Amino acid sequence: MRKDLPDHRVKSELFDEFARIGRALASGRRIEIIDILANGERTVESLAEQVRMSVANTSQHLQVLHEAGLLTRRRQGTSVHYMLAAPRVYEFWADLRALAAERLAAVEKLARAYVGPDGGVVPVSRQELLRRLRAREPLVVVDVRPVEEYEDGHLPDAISIPLDELERRLKLLPKRREVVAYCRGPYCAFAPEAVRRLRARGYRARPLEDGLPEWAAEGLPVVTEQDLTPAGYRKVSRAARLRRRLAPAGP
Is 183 a catalytic residue? Predict the structure, then answer.
């Protein structure tokens, strides 16, 4: 071996560090957690409910992701909140799923089985929706994700109707307007299911082509609850009126 070459043991350690990311993501449940956290920070308990695992198991998965530098966390009272460590983490996940869809035939088949049939409905592209929002067209944008995800960030003028509340609050949606529903992204079933239910009841409804993370990643405007000051409500008065009408009844 030539003496002037670097020690290959160091190179091995370097590539082992790269492999830490692969090992951290060598679990469908941990990738599912990344997908959820792309929509905003969550507590351990909230994530456990979403991925349908025990709090203990969810904590173990979160610890692996945290140790690999993919997540950060903060403590608030007795709760621990986790979030993606950087936008690059979401970009990596988006690249990973695109590669899997390209190389693995089972991905498309399983995605169709999970998301369900589209019924021939053409999704609304991000640019089309942005144009229509700026033109103040008479449509209703509905965020069908859990309320906490909506509060972390949502599309301009969007109102929050989680999928499990859609039936109860259906009559409050004006039928004279087209409804555009969105959720977490291309592998989320909430918006396609909401569109099927709405169209079955006579609404003109279409899904957004993907979800909030893709919208935000393109640099399109995202609104948080903190943005909705009284002045902010005046700027989006139509959304404000609908949000008040659709707000859950108090206890």
Answer: yes
Contact 60, 66 (CB under 8 A): no
Given strand 139-143, what is the order of strands in its sheet?
159-160, 139-143, 178-183, 205-211
Torsion 197-146-158-219 (CA) sign: negative
Residue ranges of domains in the chain, CATH in brackets: 8-89 (1.10.10.10), 116-246 (3.40.250.10)
Q: Which residues contact 148 (CB under 8 A, 6 or more apart)?
A: 40, 42, 46
Burial of residue 168, with CB atoms counted within 10 A of its CB: 0-12 exposed, 13-18 middle, 19 or more buried = exposed
Annotated catalytic residue, options 183, 195, 208, 242: 183
CA distance 167 to 248: 13
Q: What is the pLDDT of residues 179-224, one digit of tens each?
A: 999 999 999 999 999 999 999 999 999 999 999 999 999 999 999 8
- Confidence band of 2 (pLDDT split at 50, 70, 90): low
**Which contacts qualify for 95-103: CB closer than 8 Å, 24 or more apart?**
96/25, 96/31, 97/186, 97/187
Band of the pLDDT at 236, cuts 50, 70, 90?
Answer: very low
Contacts of 154 (CB under 8 A, 6+ apart): 143, 160, 212, 222, 223, 224
For residue range 37-77, what is the model confidence (pLDDT) as tens digits?
A: 999 999 999 999 999 999 999 999 999 999 999 999 999 99
C-alpha gyration radius of the chain: 21
